[in-house]
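Shall we go through a protein fold together, starting from nothing but its sequence? Label the sequence line and the structure token line clearly, so we can match residues to local backbone shapes. Would you write everything just below, so we can both look at the same thing?
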Amino acid sequence: MSNFRPGILFLYEACELYQQILRYHMDHESHGLVVETCRSYGEKDPTLWQQALTYFARQRDVDCRQHITQVLAHIEKHNLVPPYCIYNSKPIHPEVLGSRCFNATIVGECVFGQDI
């Protein structure tokens, strides 16, 4: 394929290749479209949210705080990833570990052994 974005994304969607859609946006550093892809197809493939978090957590040159917060809030709300899995991810952007959403989830689940 010769980099015809609408055509590539159409084919991925038609074939239900949601991982490929996400990867396409990650490869092109389209951060807003990464989150939008998760919103659009995350019910069909919840692992998209975890992959997005990993992607944003590893970004060093770009301020991804807003995206990290959105992804973490969705993951926590739908209980998609245990907090210790997020905490044990290496390397991880300090913004993830310092996130209010992440810390509230860790405190609620790991310290008290309950959901918040």
Q: What stands out?
A: The chain has eight helices and no strands. Residues 88 and 97 are 10 Å apart (CA to CA). The two ends are 47 Å apart (CA to CA).
